[in-house]
């Protein structure tokens, strides 16, 4: 399902046989600027929450506002407004959660049967397509920066970023196919945009790989007992205790008991304090840091490639225009020669 925005801008009241109740106007905004209003009562929110709540083990959804026996949204405007704000926060949190894909939620928002038709009927135009593409690319780059700077360290936030990027890319692919069928853009432009989407998909795959590498817990090469048991009696590896403080810090023992790196590199103040396992862990940390820096350079390199390809396309177009001008000049030269010949004959 394509990314949408949900909000409750206002409420209204209905009356039937002497009974009055409040209706909440849920505004569903699609990425192609299409808007739809869904009308729901508070009891329908309660029914939906009862279906979702058993699956919400992490507490991603806020609690619904409680009912009151002493206040009514029909007569109390302040109470009605506070409930509208609370329900708006609820559906916004629901939109950011995995439960937005549930069939019950789609039915609640009237998206189950007619969402695909609505998105196809009002597919992204050429300008909207480019806007969504740049927005998706910008969000993916921001997610990568947040991941590297540890600002988006929660697994839920990382998966949410991947999910939003996948939905946007799927919408871009389907909209581009529709634009091609409608001949809204030329064949060369379709090829260029398809290549842009392939690169964006590659960036998403690279982000997912980086996310897995950074979230995977660093494991030492082997426990000290295993190293000692698997080595010979004269092995340079010393037994290592399995205390909990060694899981989050490097092994710090005098380097006189270490043989790794002694004969191949100069000792530093950092490595001099480490034993064999500690040096191995330090090397892993350095390699991980280098991989992270290389991953951070990938978007810049890809942008440079896109700029170079755009310049190449522009040069090709300019060369074609120059060829047309040269061809026209040749035609005019031939016409001038014929005209001069005729003037000589008349003279």
TrEMBL record:
Region annotated Disordered, chain positions: 215-272, 328-347
PROSITE patterns for this protein: PX, T_SNARE
Example of a GO cellular component annotation carried by this entry: late endosome
Comp. bias (Basic residues): 332-341
Domain PX: 2-122
Molecular function terms, GO-annotated: phosphatidylinositol binding
Bias (Low complexity) ranges: 241-252
A family per Pfam: PX
Residue ranges constituting the T-SNARE coiled-coil homology domain according to the UniProt record: 284-346
InterPro entries noted in UniProt: PX_dom, PX_dom_sf, T_SNARE_dom
One of the protein's GO biological processes: Golgi to vacuole transport
Annotated transmembrane regions: none
Biased composition (Polar residues): 221-234
Protein name as catalogued: Vacuolar SNARE Vam7
Organism of this sequence: Schizosaccharomyces octosporus (strain yFS286) (Fission yeast)
Organism phylogeny: Eukaryota, Fungi, Dikarya, Ascomycota, Taphrinomycotina
């Amino acid at each position: 399902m394509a990314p949408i925005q949900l909000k409750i801008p206002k409420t209204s009241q209905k009356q039937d046989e002497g009974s009055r109740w409040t209706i909440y106007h849920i505004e569903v905004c699609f990425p192609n600027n299409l808007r739809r209003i869904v009308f729901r009562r508070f009891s329908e929110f309660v029914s939906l929450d009862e279906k979702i709540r058993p699956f919400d083990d992490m507490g991603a959804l806020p609690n619904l506002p409680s009912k009151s026996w002493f206040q009514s949204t029909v007569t109390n405007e302040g109470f009605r407004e506070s409930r509208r704000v609370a329900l708006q926060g609820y559906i916004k949190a629901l939109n950011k959660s995995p439960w937005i894909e549930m069939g019950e939620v789609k039915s609640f928002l009237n998206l189950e049967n007619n969402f695909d038709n609505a998105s196809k009927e009002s597919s992204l135009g050429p300008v909207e397509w480019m806007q969504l593409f740049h927005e998706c690319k910008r969000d993916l780059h921001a997610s990568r920066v947040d991941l590297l700077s540890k600002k988006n360290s929660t697994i839920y936030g990382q998966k949410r970023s991947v999910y939003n990027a996948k939905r946007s890319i799927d919408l871009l692919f389907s909209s581009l196919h529709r634009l091609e069928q409608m001949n809204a853009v030329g064949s060369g432009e379709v090829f260029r945009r398809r290549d842009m989407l392939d690169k964006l998909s590659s960036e998403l795959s690279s982000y997912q790989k980086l996310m897995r590498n950074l979230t995977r817990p660093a494991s030492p090469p082997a426990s000290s007992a295993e190293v000692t048991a698997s080595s010979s009696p004269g092995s340079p590896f010393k037994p290592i205790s399995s205390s909990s403080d060694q899981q989050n810090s490097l092994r710090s023992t005098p380097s006189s008991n270490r043989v790794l790196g002694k004969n191949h590199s100069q000792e530093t103040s950092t490595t001099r304090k480490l034993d064999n396992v500690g040096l191995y862990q330090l090397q892993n940390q350095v390699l991980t840091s280098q991989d992270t820096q290389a991953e951070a350079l990938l978007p810049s390199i890809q942008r440079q490639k896109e700029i170079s390809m755009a310049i190449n396309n522009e040069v090709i177009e300019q060369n074609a225009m120059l060829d047309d001008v040269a061809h026209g000049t040749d035609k005019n030269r031939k016409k001038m020669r014929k005209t001069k010949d005729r003037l000589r004959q008349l003279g």
